[in-house]
Amino acid sequence: MIMVDTNIIIDYLHGDGIFLDTIMESDEIATCGIVYAELLHGIKSKEERRQITDAVNEFHWIKTNEDIWEKVGDNLNILRKNGVNIPFQDGVLATLCIQSEIPIASQDKHFLQIKKFLPALELYEEKHYAGKDKFPLK
User: Fold this and answer.
1) Higher local confidence (pLDDT), 25 or 133
2) How far is CA 134 from CA 3, 18, 109, 114, in A?
3) DSSP class of residue 134?
4) What torsion, rounded to 10 degrees, do the Cα atoms 79, 84, 87, 89 define?
5) 134 pLDDT tier (thresholds 50, 70, 90)
6) Domain range spanning residue 16?
């Protein structure tokens, strides 16, 4: 199972779905509330909302339990103390992936920064595309 970040789904919905297609060939796709909320935040039409909802309903849903919030705070504190300032939602997503023991697929450099100080975070791109330029983090 692979957690797919918002940017991967947006690319897919805009017709650049090669990365998500590649992931779906070999793994089950997961999502969570924070990704769904980010997707809904950016919609421009009822049709986009329907597309997003339909897409997300096809994925395995990882729930965010109450016990995660203390760990999110601790992880964000570790990152801040090491000079890494990331969006809150990326901290939640990284922590959820660590707790669920699933890699994240993203094209966001924040996850490379997070991994330096939270090495339990597994990056899909590093695992499957190490040393290749095919799907580099942006």
Assistant:
1) 25
2) 19, 10, 16, 22
3) S
4) -30
5) very low
6) 2-129
Residue 137 lies in a domain: no
- CATH code for the domain of 31: 3.40.50.1010
Residue 54 in tokens:
């339909």
What are the tens digits of pLDDT across the range 23-72? 777 778 999 999 999 999 999 999 999 989 998 888 999 999 899 999 99
Alpha carbon separation from 130 to 14, 44, 93, 102, 127 (Å, rounded):
26, 36, 22, 17, 6
* Token pair recorded at residue 91: 């901290």
CA-based torsion, 8, 68, 76, 78: positive or negative: negative
Q: Which residue type occupies 42?
A: G
User: What is the amino acid identity at position 131?
Assistant: G
98 found inside a domain:
yes
Give me 123's structure tokens: 């990056």
